[in-house]
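Q: I have 51 residues here and want to know how they pack in 3D. Can you give me a structure?
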Amino acid sequence: MSQDNLIKLECSECKRVNYHSFKNKKKLKNRLELNKHCKSCRKHTMHKETK
């Protein structure tokens, strides 16, 4: 995997980058949104892809 496919996932509530993941940019054109656990908020929140 190349570094081009690496994305950061940011919490929508506290705005902290908690996760890194890979994405196939040829198939998924829009930004990724996942419901993940944020350890600073201590609950499941929506995490959005950042640059």
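Q: Anything worth noting?
A: Residues 3-50 form a domain with the Rubrerythrin, domain 2 fold (CATH 2.20.28.120). The chain has a mean pLDDT of 93.
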